[in-house]
């Protein structure tokens, strides 16, 4: 099917989102479209959770402030020189690109896992928004150790928020982008205001006072692990591993006019994953001085991390609104991506309905606070599972000629299950997951080795497989 002369027909067939065709030239967008989306998505709901969770992990000032500078830089470079580069060269969604390499049957399993994990992440953001909406109703807030819903009020609020977010996401990329562009300045302003107010509440009047909030670090809270400098660097680099080295954001950057749009991710990393994480940590530092938090600590329990009350304590109703919007701007593109994953499995179902399905799963996940309260561990696991599949795309794109393998082999050989891909992923995942469990290694530390091994093994196994089939 030629994309240039029957663009309108393609748009009608795939609902305007070009799930199984390269994005045509006339639909490309400038870097400004991505700036708002990334600033909005990453100065968002997860930030209200992650900042405080760093404090529960006992980080020192140097580990946090310098570690985040380095880790976020590595993330931006990954987006710019890997994800955006490949996206602009091919202009395909992650799912269609993988189908060409892996075969329909193998990629179906990947798409299902990817879509569900995206839904769980979006569910955590619905949880974050619910902690703000529940304030006027005197709703009991979830604790760090909570797994199940804690009452009917919680359930009703989560369902309503999930329904609204799902409808916005189902309208497609344009609506998601517009929502992010509109909301992100409000959220960024709220994070700045929260940080400034919290500094005043903590009595900070100099940089040394600010530094001493974390100081030399502390023992982690009950049930949490201790974070060092390298924990912060590696975790912040791979917090979005599925999106950059895992290539999920091929689905977003395929709309970019050039690979330089990849630099717009810096807005998300340094406004969101730097300023906002630190501002959110300051909110929690204020709460830790309260009698309620001290009572939890004296009982050997970690004080709850509920973004709504934390922001409300700093800037009142504006804080409540900001937390609700922050949950939306993360959940919206996440549900959109999950919808694309499900679309690849059931291509005859419209974009609207697969996104509604994704939103429903996300809403159900949002009912369970554990996804939000264990966010550091969940994000590490999520990246570790999915990132190696991105290595298959990266290594094939850059090294297929040197390795002497056929690009998009499953499509060209008409095979449904590429054993080279599955074996490369299974060996790298199994080996490094065993190391993580056996030697108690933080999962983010083995994400890069697993990614590299998967890419190399894919080239080796592909060479052998393709030689047999010749």
Radius of gyration: 22 Å
Give the termini separation.
28 Å
Specify the biggest β-sheet. Answer: none
Q: Number of folding domains? A: 1
Q: What overall form do the CA principal axes indicate? A: globular
Q: Which fold name corresponds to the CATH topology?
A: Hydantoin permease
Low-confidence stretches: 1-16
Q: Share of helix among residues?
A: over 70%
CATH class call: Mainly Alpha
Keywords: Membrane, Transmembrane, Transmembrane helix
InterPro entries: CodB
GO molecular function: cytosine transmembrane transporter activity
Transmembrane segments: 53-77, 116-139, 151-170, 182-207, 227-246, 267-290, 310-331, 352-372, 378-396, 417-435, 441-461
Topology:
Elements: H1 7-13, H2 31-42, H3 45-56, H4 61-90, H5 94-102, H6 104-133, H7 152-169, H8 173-201, H9 207-211, H10 229-238, H11 250-253, H12 265-288, H13 291-298, H14 307-315, H15 317-345, H16 351-366, H17 370-373, H18 375-403, H19 409-413, H20 419-438, H21 447-469
Task: Explain the overall architecture.
The protein is mostly helical. It has one domain: Hydantoin permease. The chain is built from 21 helices and no strands. It has helices spanning 7-13, 31-42, 45-56, 61-90, 94-102, 104-133, 152-169, 173-201, 207-211, 229-238, 250-253, 265-288, 291-298, 307-315, 317-345, 351-366, 370-373, 375-403, 409-413, 419-438, 447-469. It is globular. Residues 1-16 have low confidence and may be disordered.
């Amino acid at each position: 099917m030629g994309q240039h002369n029957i663009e309108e027909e393609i748009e009608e067939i795939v609902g305007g989102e070009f799930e199984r065709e390269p994005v045509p030239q006339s639909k490309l967008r400038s870097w400004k479209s991505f700036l708002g989306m990334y600033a909005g998505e990453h100065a968002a709901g997860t930030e209200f959770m992650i900042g405080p969770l760093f404090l529960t992990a006992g980080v020192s000032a140097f580990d946090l402030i310098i570690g985040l500078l380095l880790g976020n830089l590595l993330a931006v470079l990954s987006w710019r020189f890997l994800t955006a580069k490949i996206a602009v060269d091919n202009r395909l969604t992650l799912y269609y690109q993988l189908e060409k390499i892996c075969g329909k049957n193998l990629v179906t399993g990947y798409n299902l896992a990817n879509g569900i994990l995206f839904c769980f992440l979006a569910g955590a953001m619905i949880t974050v928004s619910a902690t703000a909406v529940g304030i006027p109703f005197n709703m009991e807030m979830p604790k760090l150790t909570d797994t199940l819903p804690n009452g009917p009020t919680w359930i009703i609020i989560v369902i309503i928020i999930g329904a609204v977010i799902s409808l916005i996401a189902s309208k497609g990329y344009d609506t998601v982008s517009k929502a992010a562009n509109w909301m992100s300045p409000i959220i960024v302003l709220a994070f700045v205001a929260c940080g400034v107010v919290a500094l005043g509440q903590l009595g900070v009047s100099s940089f040394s006072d600010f530094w001493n909030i974390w100081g030399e670090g502390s023992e982690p809270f009950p049930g949490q692990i201790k974070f060092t400098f390298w924990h912060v660097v590696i975790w912040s680099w791979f917090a979005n591993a599925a999106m950059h080295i895992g290539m999920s954001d091929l689905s977003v950057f395929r709309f970019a006019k050039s690979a330089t749009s990849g630099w717009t991710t810096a807005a998300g990393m340094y406004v969101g994953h730097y300023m906002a994480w630190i501002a959110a940590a300051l909110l929690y530092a204020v709460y830790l001085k309260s009698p309620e938090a001290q009572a939890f600590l004296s009982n050997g329990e970690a004080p709850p991390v509920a973004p709504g009350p934390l922001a409300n304590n700093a800037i009142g109703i504006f804080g409540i609104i900001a937390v609700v919007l922050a949950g939306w701007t993360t959940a919206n593109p996440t549900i959109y991506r999950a919808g694309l994953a499900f679309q690849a499995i059931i291509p005859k179902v419209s974009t609207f309905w697969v996104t509604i399905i994704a939103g429903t799963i996300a809403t159900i996940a949002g009912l369970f606070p554990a996804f939000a309260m264990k966010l550091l561990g969940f994000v590490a696991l999520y990246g570790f599972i999915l990132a190696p599949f991105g290595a298959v795309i990266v290594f094939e794109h850059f090294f297929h000629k040197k390795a002497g393998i056929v690009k998009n082999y499953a499509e060209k050989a008409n095979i449904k299950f590429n054993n080279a891909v599955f074996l490369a992923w299974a060996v790298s995942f199994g080996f490094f997951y065993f190391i993580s469990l056996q030697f108690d290694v933080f999962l983010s530390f083995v994400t890069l080795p697993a990614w590299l091994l998967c890419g190399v093994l894919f080239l080796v196994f592909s060479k052998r497989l393709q030689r047999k089939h010749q």
